[in-house]
Amino acid sequence: MTKLINLNINNTPVTVPEGTLVVDAAKKIGVDIPVFCYHPKMEPVGMCRQCLVEIGRPMIDRATGKPVLNEDGSPKLQFGPKLETSCTTPVSEGMAVLTETAKAKGGQKEIIELLLTSHPLDCPVCDKGGECPLQNLTMEHGAGESRFLFDEKHHAEKHVPLGDLIFLDRERCIQCARCIRFQDKIAGEPVLGFYQRGRNTDVVTYSDPGFDSVFSGNTTDICPVGALTTADFRFGARPWELKHAASVCAQCPVGCNLTFDVRREAKTGGGYVIKRAMPRQNEQVNEIWMCDKGRFSGYQFTEAETRLRLTPVEMESALRRASDILAQSKSETVFLAGGRLANEDLFTLKKFAAALGAQAYLYTQHGGGEFTTAYGLTSGSNLGDLGKGDVILVVASDLYNEAPLWHLRLKAAAGRGATLIVANARATKLDEFSTFVVRYSYGDEVETVKGLPAKEKIGEALKNAANLVIFYGADGLGLAGTTALAQACADLVKERAGKANNGLVGVWSSPNQQGALEMGLRPAQNLAAELRGKTVYLLAADLAGDDPALAQALKGAKAVIVQDVLQTASVALAQVVLPASAYTEREGTFTNGERRVQRFYPAVPNVATSRPDFSLLAAVAKGCGVDLEGRSTLLVMNAIAAQESAFAGLSYAKLAEVSEQYPLIGRGDLYYGGTGYENKQGLGVTLAPAEAVTPLNIPYAALRPKEDELLGVPVTKLYDDGTTLAPAKLLAAHVERYRGVVLHPATAEKLALGNGEQAEVRLGGARYLAKALVDASISTGVVLIPRSMGIALTEPAVVQVSAAEKAQEA
Amino acid sequence: MAQNEKSLLGKVQDALHGSMLLELTKGMITTLYAFFFEKKVTVQYPEEKRPVSARFRGRHVLNRYENGLEKCIGCSLCAAACPADAIFVESAENTDEKRFSPGERYASTYEINMLRCIYCGFCEDACPTEAITLGDNYELSFTDRRQALYTKDMLLVPVLPGGQPTPQVTAPGEFTRSVPAMKDPQD
Description:
The complex is a heterodimer. Chain A has 26 helices and 34 strands. By secondary structure, chain A is α/β, with parallel strands linked by helices. Chain A has 5 domains: about 5-100, Ubiquitin-like (UB roll); about 110-230, Alpha-Beta Plaits; about 310-365 and about 515-650, Rossmann fold, CATH 3.40.50.740; about 370-505, 3-Layer(aba) Sandwich (Dimethylsulfoxide Reductase, domain 2), CATH 3.40.228; about 710-810, Barwin-like endoglucanases (Beta Barrel). Chain A is globular, with a radius of gyration of 29 Å. Chain B contains 5 helices and 5 strands. The radius of gyration of chain B is 29 Å and the shape is elongated.
C-alpha cells in the first residue's frame, strides 16, 4: 500500500498517493491547472512553464527539526519567492497549493503571452482550430490583447512533411516535446528530435523514410497546438462540424476503441461521410492510443469504388436465387465465415447452418482457438495491470506488425517490471524491450515452448510468475503448426485458467476471430477437399483471392454464393453475390483477442441496398423456410446471451456501461490528455471462460530448413494487400515497402540477388515474381513470404527462389 | 357646483372638439400641403431603385483582392457563427500551380441557403479576412427552392480590372499567409 499524502489545493484538502504530481492532484478535485508539455501518460519535463502555481510548505525549525507553528497552533507555511511548475513537483505532506492567486494567474498569463509571440494567426486555417489547447487556454488564462506586433512574429516553414502521414507546421510548434517524448518513451521508436536552439528550435525526424513509426498518428492527438496534423484530415472539416460515432477498429484482434467523425459533404450529394478515425479511451484495451493502420485504413475501404452495389430489384432476385440454391443443397452446403463478421452475424450463420444440417467453418489459417476459449483471458484482466512479478510470453508473433497496440502495451508492462519473454525464429521489434529473448529455428516452435520450463532463468520466472499471459502467433506457421503451438502454450497456462490476468491469447489476423471461436466455429482441416461438389456460401472470405488452389476448389463446387463488402476475386466465381454493409454502417459487437466483447455503432448510412450480414443471412434463410432474426442486432445479442454459455448475461445495455477512467480525456480537458475521445459508449465486457474441449487432433510434422533447400515461411506484415487495407491510398507507399520476399544477405548473394531486385519464387508448381528484400536478422535457410501479398503460402513449404532475369533467359 | 359652471365660449370650444372638426381641418391642411408642395417619395421600382444605407444587409458577396485572388480561405467560421445554419463550406488545399486564395486553404464549396438566411450579418463579423460581406442586393425571389442555394460562383464578385481570375499560377513563397495584416475597422 502506497503512503497517502495530505495537502491543500486552493484551501481544499486532498489526499493522494505519495509521488503524485501537484497538477494531477489538482485534477482529481477538479482544479484545472493549464499545461502544455505535461501529459498524464508521460514523465514530466517542465518545458513550457505553463503550470506555474504558488506552493507553500510547512516551515521547519532548523534547530529542533519540528514544524514551526502559528499562534493558533496550525503549522506555519513558507511560500517560495518564485512560482513553481506544478507538473514537476510531487506532493508533500502539509503542502499548500494556490492556483488562483493574482501571482499564479499572472505567471500563467505571461507564459501564454510569451508563447503567442511566435505563434502565427493561423487559427482559421488550422486543422486543430476548435479543439486546440493553446486556443482554449488563451481564452481562459491569456491576456485579451497582445503587446507584440504582428509584423515581428517569428516566421518559419509551413506544411513540412515529417513522413507521408504527418505534417509539421514549424511556426505553430511551441516546443513542448510531447511528440518526441511519446516516440521515445511510449512508442519506443525514437525517430523525432529537436534541432537547433532558442527560437530556431525545430522538430525533425531522424529516420529514413521520415517519421518511420506505426504510432505516428498519436502525436497529432497529443500535440497541444496545430503543429502536427495528419495528411488524412488535412482541411477535411472543422472539429465543431463533426458528428461522432463510436466504433471498434476492425484491422486487428486488439479491438481498439475509436470514434469515427462524420459530416455531410457536397461531393456525396449531402450524405454523411467519415472524415477521420480518432482513438476513444479504453484503459483496458487501447488506453488513448491507436496505430496508423487503424487510423489511416480503418474506414477507407468502406468508401472504395469496389463496393458491391445492387439495385433493389437485383437484390431481391439475388436473395431469391440464394434461397433456391440453399433449399436444394441443404446439408450439402458449406458455410465459410471470415473473422471480419460481427458476433451477431456469426451466431445467425451458425443457426442457419444448423437448420440446414450444413457445415460451417471459420476461414483462417490460424488454429488453436479451442485453447484460447478455454484458457483465454477472463473478466478483470487488463494488460495495463501487469507489472513486477508477472510474466508475459510472446511466441511466434511479431506483435509490432500483427497487433501494434499489444506491442505498445507489452512494452509498457515490461517497463513497469514485468518479465517479458519473446520467443521467435527471427528478430522482432519487441526483442529490444524484453527481459529474455529465445531464438529458435523455424519448425522448432513447439519443442521450444515445451522446453521453456526446463530453462534455468525462464523456467524459474514461469514457475514463480504471479500472473502469466501468453501470446502466440502464426509467424512461420500454418494451421497445423499453430494448433500444436497453442496446445504447448496452453499446457503452460492451464492451471491458472479462470484467474484474471492469466491466459492464452491468439494473435489473430482478423478483428473477430475470437468471437467466431467462442461461437464454436472452427477452421476446416482440409478446406479444398471440403468444397468439392458442395454449395459454398462465403461470408467475408476471399478464398479465390488468397490462394489459386482454393480458387480451383471453388470452381469444383456445385454453386458459390458470396456475401461481402467489396468486389473480390471470389465474387467473379460466384453464382449469387450479396452486398453486405461495412461495419461502419451498422451495429454489432466484436470479441477481441483478450475476449472482450465490444460494441460498435453505425457511423454512416448503408451503401446502396447493402444490408448487414446477419440480415442478409436471415433473408436467405426465410426463403429456405428457416425463421431467423434479421431486423435487430439487439435481439440477436439477446439470443446469443441466452444460448451461448460464454456470452451468458451479456446485453447491449451492459456492453454500453462506462466507468470513470483516468486520465481524464475529452470534455474540457483537451489540454491535458489530448484530443482523443472520452468513452461514453461502453467499455465492453470480458467473457467467462468456456469449458475445456478436447482439442482437434491435427497431425503436425514441422518442416525445418535443410541444407541446399530454402524453406518458405509465411509471416504477417502490418501493411499488406488485404481486402480492407488495399483501398487505403494513403498507405500505398507503406505497403510497397513491405512488398517482396525477405532473404538473408548470404542467401541472396548465393542466388545472385541484390536488395530490391526481382526474384522468381516457385512454390508447388506456381511461379511468382517478387522483389527480393535483404535482412541480416533472419537465418540463411529460410525465405520470409508476407501473407496477403500475392504469394499464396499458407504453411511452411520448400520453395525455389532464383533471380528473375536468369529465369527469363532459360 | 360652482367649479363645474362654464362660460359660453367654453361651451362652443367643447362642441368643436366633440365634433373633431378642428382636427379634421388640421389634418387636411397637412395632406394638401404635402400633395401640392412636397417632393414625391414614390419610386418607380423596379425601373428605378432607391439607394440603400451604408450598413444595409442584403445578399452576401464573396470578395476578391485586387489581384483577383479570393479573400475566402475556407475556414468555415461564417458557418459556425451562422445562427440559421444557412452556410455550408468545404475546403481544400491551394498549390502555387492552382491558387484560389492566399495561404494554404481555400473554399472548394461555398453555399448559402438564402431561404434560411436571416441577414443578421454574423458571418461578416466572424470572417477573419473580410471575404464575406452583406451587399446591397435585396432582390431575392425564387420559383424553386433550389434556386435559393447560392453557390460560390454566384456569390463571388467579378475580378477587378487588372486582376486575374482564379485559379491562378503564382510564384512559390509569394502567398504564404492566409490572413492578411489588417487594421481595426474605422466605420
